[in-house]
Amino acid sequence: MFTTNYETYLATYAASNSTSRGRFYHETVDPARSPFARDRDRIVHATAFRRLEYKTQVFVNHEGDLFRTRLTHSMEVAQLARALARQLRLNEDLIEAIALAHDLGHTPFGHAGQDALNECMQPYGGFEHNLQSLRIVDVLEERYGGFDGLNLTFETREGILKHCARRNAEQLGDVGERFLNGTQPSLEAQITNIADAIAYSNHDIDDGLRSGILSLEGMRESSLFAQYHDEVRHAFPQIRGHREVLETVRRIINAMVVDLTQTTANSIAAHGIQTIEDVRAAPQLASFSEEMRTHMSTLKQYLMIHMYRHHQVMRSSVKAQRVIRELFAAFIDEPRLLAQDYQVPNDKITQARRIADYIAGMTDRYALREHVRLFSSTDDK
């Protein structure tokens, strides 16, 4: 079993390398890597991970080279999550693995693509990107001779599955149990979930201001942004433009990280948490203070109104959803348009799921090219 002095550094309530619930398929222990480090490495080498480079965060991939993609977002979540893990003495390898894998199941075109694919899949069980992420690491990746998927540890898999409807949880075995019995995942999973929210909220501010959709004066309607923007202008009166934005966002992220770390540590102490079993039996422990939750809510509301529902973003979203709907309709009407591996004769439900796998695996630009190939009147190759 992999052991290092690192184990002695971990808090007693952290997920331990030596007590992992293990993998579905037994494998010989790697003497050079912890089980969770091995998970992280498998995720980084996965085909689905590479595709994140060309999947939208908010802006469609071809709209600019400087905007976030699912890949850069996942890397930023991993950085934040590892910093939080170190402060709370949690397992950094596990938290990084969860962070890098959490968006593997996202469709092209961000949430607009997911909404459209879910709508298409309603007669066949629906579509949810968390479940798709788990499906990718459990079934769809094809890298190993002895099993489908990546054969990740239980702890990484439960962290990937942030939320799940009861009807789906009943079919997922061990990772679905907590949604049925009301228990919590590891603190590593809880922290990664909030690190995701910190990353996308702040980096959407950056991308929104860079694109011109948001304005500095408008962002000052958020008291949190205004507080740190004033601090930046006082400290650096000579700087303006994007550098000013980055300094402000950096301070907001730091404030959120400090607040989350302290509030979570206080909650751990208040509940007398000693073991990971205590973590699972307690209410959710990772959280912001009430004040920071209010700030986060106000910020999200502002971004929803002024960015996510901005007419430029909405136009891209509507176009993207039309692409997804038309691709799905074409493939479900005539599965022979698909490669042989995706054809499932005489089983409409399974066929629909394989179509969802195919579409969800597309990058933004591949989906657009596939749409042109199917619907253009010219002889596109």
Automatic annotation (TrEMBL):
Quote the SUPFAM superfamilies the UniProt record gives: HD-domain/PDEase-like
Domain HD spans what residues? 70-201
Q: Which GO terms describe its molecular function?
A: dGTPase activity
Q: Which PROSITE patterns match?
A: HD (PS51831)
| Highest taxon of source | Bacteria
One biological-process term from Gene Ontology? dGTP catabolic process
What keywords appear on the UniProt entry? Hydrolase
InterPro entries, per database record = dGTPase, dGTPase-like, dNTPase_2, HD/PDEase_dom, HD_domain, HDIG_dom, PHydrolase_assoc_dom
Family membership: Belongs to the dGTPase family. Type 2 subfamily.
Output the PANTHER family linked to this UniProt entry.
Answer: DEOXYGUANOSINETRIPHOSPHATE TRIPHOSPHOHYDROLASE-LIKE PROTEIN (PTHR11373:SF43), DEOXYNUCLEOSIDE TRIPHOSPHATE TRIPHOSPHOHYDROLASE (PTHR11373)
| Name the record gives this protein | Deoxyguanosinetriphosphate triphosphohydrolase-like protein
Species of provenance: Formosimonas limnophila
